[in-house]
Amino acid sequence: MADGAPAVPFLDLVSQQAEVADEVLAAWERLLRAAHFVGGPDVAAFEREFAAYIGVEHVVGVANGTDALELAYRALGIQAGDEVILPVNTFIATAEAVTAVGATPVFVDVDDETLLIDPAAAESAITERTRAIVPVHLFGQTAPVEALAPLAARRGIAIVEDAAQSQGAVSAAGRAGALGTIAATSFYPGKNLGAAGDAGAVMTDDAARYADLLAASPGVRLPGTRSGNRDVWHLYVVRVEERDRVLADLAAAGVGAAIHYPTPLHLTDAYAGLGYRRGQFPVAERAAARILSLPMFPHLTRAQQERVASVLTAATSRSRSHG
Ligand SMILES: *Cc1c(COP(=O)(O)O)cnc(C)c1O
């Protein structure tokens, strides 16, 4: 690090683990002694508690978020010949699960402010083969399910929420996972629930801090939050010009950052066969070249965030002065 400041990791799972280590080890020993390796009373208790928290009747634990999506599509009877509408700005698992059941993902663009699915684009992509629309509650806030639900209901189309990044996120209509027909979530270690049990409030504080620290940095476009939403900040995604150079500057200064996601689904090799062209989803394509995810996790300190903000401000003012 040029100036000797301590590095800021993108994610710090070690601190998160340390906070709950004693409790987890005690539970792990109980579980080993009872040989409850798959399912068992602890899983059942978690399913009940999580259902109560989200505000739904039933929760069933499965192996991962991708399986959860696939099983949701299967539960709806979605199969070969059916179409499922989803945004191109998402983790590819949203589409892979559609492919896994033999159906065809139909891609649509995202809203320029929030980078969440654009409801108007989704509406115009509906055909007589459409069986489901997938609002992805990306980065930690809910997608506009309330705009999609009435038109989906009118046409007998299901709403499958991809809530992998938004446990606890709230919209004016309710909690992520309780807004559509069926919802899938992921407890991958870096996802919000893996982060810390009651981390929601802490993360909201941390997010407001980034907004304050970066308010006077004109080269940084802050994440847009839909009105009425409370974001749980799974990811803090800003947009900057000369993103790759800015990312390199951050790395050189020891600040962990990442890109979610570098390639909109229609431009991936995996889905080249669907025949979409560059230029078709201009908002997502423009955003893909500019997005930058800043460090965001429950143990992120104020000092670390101040460091991130000052390095980012310096890096982006360089890009402005160089045109
Ligand atoms: C992580 C993620 C998934 C898949 O979850 P896994 O547990 O990794 O299979 C699906 N959709 C989104 C938006 C995700 O972030």
Reading the helices and strands in chain order gives HHHEHEHEHEEEEHHEHHEH
Radius of gyration: 20 Å
CATH class: Alpha Beta
Any guess at the CATH architecture?
Answer: 3-Layer(aba) Sandwich
What is the helix tally? 11
Physical arrangement of strands within the biggest beta sheet: 2-1-3-4-7
Question: Are there runs of 5+ residues with pLDDT below 50, and where?
Answer: 195-206
* β-strand number: 9
List the helices and strands and how they pair.
Blueprint: H1 13-34, H2 41-54, H3 65-75, E1 83-87, H4 93-100, E2 104-108, H5 119-124, E3 130-133, H6 145-154, E4 158-162, E5 170-171, E6 174-175, E7 182-184, H7 192-195, H8 199-214, E8 236-239, H9 243-252, H10 282-288, E9 291-294, H11 302-321
Parallel strand pairs: 1-2, 1-3, 3-4, 4-7
Antiparallel strand pairs: 5-6, 8-9
The structure holds pyridoxal-5'-phosphate.
Pyridoxal-5'-phosphate (PLP) binds at residues 64-66, 90-91, 93-94, 136, 162, 164-165, 186, 188.
Short description:
The chain has 11 helices and 9 strands. By secondary structure, the protein is α/β, with parallel strands linked by helices.
